[in-house]
C-alpha cells in the first residue's frame, strides 16, 4: 500500500519538471515502446514515460563504463530512492514523476526492486552463458517486472493480466537477446543459456568464440522457438483481457513478433546485418492493432 501523503514531496513546479524530464528520456530513446504508449490517456501515458525513464536510468548504470563496485553503488542508490519514493520523499526527477502513478495505479514496489535486481546481475560481472534457471530469472527481472508495472499503468484488472505481462516480457527479452548477439558480444556478454549451447556441443562461454561457431544457428533457432511459445501464450491471454487497456501491449507484441520473424529469415550467420523494422512498418502495426 502506498504511504499516506505520497504526493506531499512535490510542488506543482517539481511535478511538471519531473514530467518534462521523463518525457524527454522516453522520446529521446526512439524505442518501439513509444508506439503503443502514445495511445494511452494522458495520465497513464505519463505513468509509462516515468516507468520507462526509471528502467532506462538503471539500465545505463549497468551498461555504461565504471567498475563493478561503482555500478553496485549506483544501483544501491536507486534502491534507496525507491524506498524514499514509497515513503513519499523522492529526490530524483524520475522518481518524482512516479509519485502519482504509484498512488493512482498501485504500482508494486517489489517490481521496481526486481528491475534493479536484474541490472545487478549485469553489473556484478559480464553474463556469459548463464544456466537456464538464471536466464529465466534474468528475463523475469529485467522484462517481466516491467511488464507487471505496465499492466498496472494500463489499467488492466483481469486475473490474466499479470501472466500476460510475464509471458510477453519473456518473449520480448528473448527477441532482444537474439537481435543483439553481436552488440552484447562486443561488451563481453553472452546471454544464450548454457544448456542450449552444450546440447549442440558448444562448451565455450567466450562470446566471440561462440558467435563464430558454425553450430550457433541451431542454438538460436531453439531459443527463438522458446520466444514463439511465449508470444503464443501472451496472445492467448490477451484475448481474455479488455481490448482498450491492452492496446500498447498488443502493439508491442505485434512489433516484436514481426521482428523475431525477420531475425529467423536472416538467420544467425551474418550477425553484422542489422535487423530493424522501418518506421512506416511500425506505424502500420500500431494502426492495425491500436484500434
Residues in helix, %: over 70%
Which architecture of the largest domain per CATH?
Orthogonal Bundle
Structural class: mainly alpha
What is the global morphology?
globular
Count of the domains: 2
Strand percentage lies at under 5%
Number of extended strands: 0
User: Are there runs of 5+ residues with pLDDT below 50, and where?
Assistant: 1-9
| Number of helical stretches of at least 4 residues | 15
CATH superfamily of the largest domain: Farnesyl Diphosphate Synthase
Average residue pLDDT? 91
**CATH domain fold name of the largest domain:** Farnesyl Diphosphate Synthase
Q: Strand-and-helix sequence, N→C?
A: HHHHHHHHHHHHHHH
- Sheet with the most strands? none
The CATH class designation of the largest domain is: Mainly Alpha
Radius of gyration equals 19 Å
The CA-CA distance between the termini, in Å, is: 34 Å
List the helices and strands and how they pair.
Blueprint: H1 12-29, H2 33-37, H3 42-63, H4 68-86, H5 93-97, H6 99-105, H7 109-124, H8 132-154, H9 160-179, H10 181-186, H11 194-199, H12 207-212, H13 216-238, H14 247-266, H15 279-289
Helix pairs in contact: 1-3, 3-7, 3-8, 4-7, 7-8, 8-9, 9-13, 9-14, 13-14, 14-15
Amino acid at each position: 500500500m502506498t504511504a499516506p501523503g505520497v504526493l506531499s514531496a512535490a510542488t506543482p513546479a517539481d511535478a511538471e519538471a519531473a514530467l518534462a524530464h521523463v518525457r524527454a528520456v522516453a522520446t529521446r530513446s526512439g524505442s518501439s515502446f513509444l508506439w503503443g504508449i502514445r495511445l494511452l490517456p494522458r495520465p497513464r501515458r505519463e505513468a509509462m514515460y516515468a516507468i520507462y525513464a526509471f528502467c532506462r536510468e538503471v539500465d545505463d548504470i549497468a551498461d555504461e563504463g565504471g567498475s563493478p563496485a561503482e555500478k553496485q553503488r549506483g544501483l544501491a542508490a536507486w534502491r534507496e530512492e525507491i524506498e524514499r519514493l514509497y515513503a513519499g520523499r523522492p529526490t530524483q526527477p524520475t522518481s518524482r514523476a512516479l509519485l502519482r502513478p504509484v498512488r493512482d495505479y498501485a504500482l508494486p514496489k517489489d517490481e521496481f526492486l526486481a528491475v534493479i535486481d536484474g541490472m545487478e546481475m549485469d553489473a556484478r560481472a559480464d553474463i556469459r552463458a548463464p544456466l537456464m534457471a538464471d536466464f529465466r530469472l534474468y528475463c523475469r527481472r529485467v522484462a517481466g517486472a516491467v511488464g507487471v508495472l505496465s499492466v498496472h499503468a494500463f489499467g488492466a484488472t483481469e486475473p490474466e493480466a499479470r501472466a500476460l505481462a510475464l509471458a510477453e516480457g519473456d518473449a520480448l527479452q528473448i527477441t532482444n537477446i537474439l537481435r543483439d548477439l553481436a552488440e552484447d558480444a562486443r561488451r563481453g556478454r553472452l546471454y544464450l543459456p548454457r544448456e542450449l549451447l552444450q546440447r549442440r556441443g558448444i562448451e565455450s562461454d567466450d562470446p566471440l568464440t561462440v558467435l563464430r561457431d558454425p553450430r550457433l544457428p541451431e542454438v538460436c533457432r531453439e531459443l527463438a522457438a522458446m520466444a514463439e511459445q511465449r508470444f503464443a501464450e501472451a496472445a492467448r491471454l490477451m484475448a481474455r483481457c479488455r481490448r482498450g487497456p491492452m492496446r500498447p501491449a498488443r502493439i508491442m507484441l505485434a512489433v516484436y513478433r514481426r521482428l523475431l520473424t525477420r531475425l529467423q529469415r536472416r538467420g544467425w550467420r551474418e550477425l553484422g546485418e542489422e535487423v530493424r523494422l522501418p518506421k512506416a512498418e511500425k506505424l502500420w502495426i500500431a494502426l492495425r492493432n491500436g484500434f
